[in-house]
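Meet our chain:
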Amino acid sequence: MTLPEGLTPGVWTLDMSHSEVGFSVRHAGISKVRGRFNEASAEARVRASLADASLHATVKTASFDSGDANRDNHVRGADFFDVEKYPEMTFRATGIRGDGEDYVLTGDLTIRDVTKPVDLEVEFTGVAVDPFGATRAGFSAEADISRKEFGLTWNAALEAGGLLVSDKVKISVEAAMVKQADAS
C-alpha cells in the first residue's frame, strides 16, 4: 500500500497544541453536547508501505473538558469515565485500507478496560514544513461508537419519554503529527 504524497517513513508524534481529540453526543434527544480531551499522545511508525505502519494513541480521561464544570465533574466521575480507576483511553491500529486522501483505520479502542474494534474514517490532509523546519502531517478522523459497549451506561429518563444521553457517540480527531529526527 503506497504512502500518501509527502508522508515519509519514520516516527511521527502527535502535536497536541495543534490537535483536538473530541466527541459529540445527543443530549435530551434535541441537541448535541461536545467535549474534548486536553491531554493526549500518539506515535505512528510509518514504514515504506502504509500497510506496515503502526499507530498507538493514549488519551488522559481526567483532561475531559466540555466547558461546563458540573458536567465535566460528572463525566470524569464513576458514572462515566471513572478517571481515578481508568485514567487512560487507548487506541491501537490493527489495519488500514484505502488510498490517496481517504482511508479506514481499524483498531482496538479501550475505554474503562473494555476493548472493542473501531473503524476510523480518516482523511489525510497533507504534509508541510513549518517555519521552524518541522515536517508536519495532518489527519482528520471520525468514528461512531456505542458508549454502552464500553460500559458507559449511566442515563436518566426524560419526562416526555426517551433518555437524557444518547448511546451513539461521534468521536472526532484533528491531528497534527510531527516527524521526529532520525535517531543515529
Remarks:
- The domain at 10-179 is CATH 2.40.128.110 (Lipocalin).
- Residues 102 and 123 are 5 Å apart (CA to CA).
